[in-house]
Amino acid sequence: MARCGLLGLCRYETNKLVRIQSVRLGSLKWILNATILLFICIMMLWNREYQEFDLVVSSVTAKVKGVAQTHLTGIGDLVWDVVDYSGPSQEKNSFFVVTNVIVTKNQKQGKCPEAPRNGRLCRTDKDCEKGAWGQQNHGIQTGSCVKFDVLKKTCEIFAWCPVETKTNPPRPALLAAAENFTVLIKNNIRFPAFNYFRRNILPEMNDAYLKSCNRANDSLCPIFRLGDMVRDAGEKFSEMAIEGGVIGILIKWDCNLDRLMQRCLPRYSFRRLDEKESNRTLYPGINFRYAKYNTVSGVEERTLYKVFGIRFDVMVFGQAGKFSFIQLVIYIGSTLSYYALTSIVLDWLIGTSCYSAEVGQNYSEKKVESVQDKQKCVLCVSYVDENNIRLLKKSLKKSLQDVKPMSVQPRKEDTGHLRAALSLLQPGVDVDHDAQPLLNHKPEPKPKVERPSWCKCDCCAPSSLLQEELCCRQSDGACITSSPLFERLVLHRPLLEAVLLYHDPLSAPADRGRTAALRHCAYRQYMSWRFGDPPVDTQPAIPSCCVWRVREEYPSPDGQYSGFKPTRMVSMQACANGEV
Ligand code: ZN
Ligand code: ZN
After folding, report:
1. pLDDT digits (tens, 9 = 90+) for 268-285
2. CA-to-CA distance for 328 and 325, rounded, in angstroms?
């Protein structure tokens, strides 16, 4: 048993192929394969599939430059330089530019009326609760109701007075001139896997270049005009400046680090990141407050600024690729399956009527080998008045004669058998000279009353088994057993003995003379004659008249016969050796 298992291990199974000799199919195959190869190569070069990639790691700093002059009511002309408009804090990878401002001057700690928008209107002191504080309030209520202006009275509060009363930013924006400010973006990148460093200020850029370059004529220039960036993002600076917003500066690095095609340059693009429809958005833009403090004759004062502006967020992304043999092998491996498309297309083409129907039939016959389940025994039937062979399944209700065929196939001649049988029939080739002369037996006509309903030839005998109820004919007529050829091919004793000797050349004459062996050989002769080469996995069924005629010629001494057992195909050897 162990040897058996080992033998099973030392075994290799491979697919059987069908080769079609066809110029059309052959050239189509090569055209398809060449197209697939071309596609694979283009994809490989286009997507650089032969490279391994690493993602960028980067740092960004920005330096804004520019000066703007504004006129503020109550303050007068004011010059804003970078310290004023950059806002108090610099966030990581972003910078802020003030574009609009609401100034509230000379605020001192004290008591003053709340702005009607933030507090509530009142008539008497009873309306104002002392010590109360609301989320919108600028300070804490003192409990008095005081005049805000000529018309309105509001609760008095303890706060930085006077309170900020303006809510809407000035239009047009006070610092709309910030459009002409410039920013120098410094971006250092690194690809850790390849230990590769790079800056967006390229080595060949010198001081003179940076002073004069602009994006209109050099897309690599790292100095940007704010107005240009906002315009590239599809916005209008003058509108965006009023309430502020967020602009994204996208720097994309797509680097090829292979020596032959080395290239690693940044690509800049701009996009607005916040919701721009201010009439649809509840709190549009960006704003925040800060104050500048000073002391006037011992009292602390402050100037409050509510600033609106544009925040620029710099986002860096990208990757670098370098040739990798492993990646190349993986890519080639992943593309091999595409070649299966060729066989799918060609098989489909052969299967459809687009190609020759004859070739398709031939191809599928050669390619597909159908195997029947052992349980489903398919019988084949050959009628003497019909050229084809019928394939049918045994029925439990109908006699075999009446079962409808599953399919009808042309008869395939077993030429080897035909030639052998004919050569044995040649005069002077009689192998057994002791044999009786050719039988001249006429079948005794059976009494007419016995003819079963399914018989068409008048020679069949009734049977208790439905599978044995089969006649030699489809329509009424003469029985095949009445043909002289039946005598010669099926019943002729010297022929049967010669066939038995052919299969077992050393058998004793007594063995060959056994009636059981001769009877079974006669059945086999009948099958070879009438079915030729029967369809694969089917079993020929012999008509009742022929069975009875053979039994009559070679009877069983005890009158017992095994009958028709539809099982798998029997071999010639089984025919020669024993029961069918
Ligand atoms: Zn019959
Ligand atoms: Zn018959």
Report:
1. 999 998 877 655 667 778
2. 5
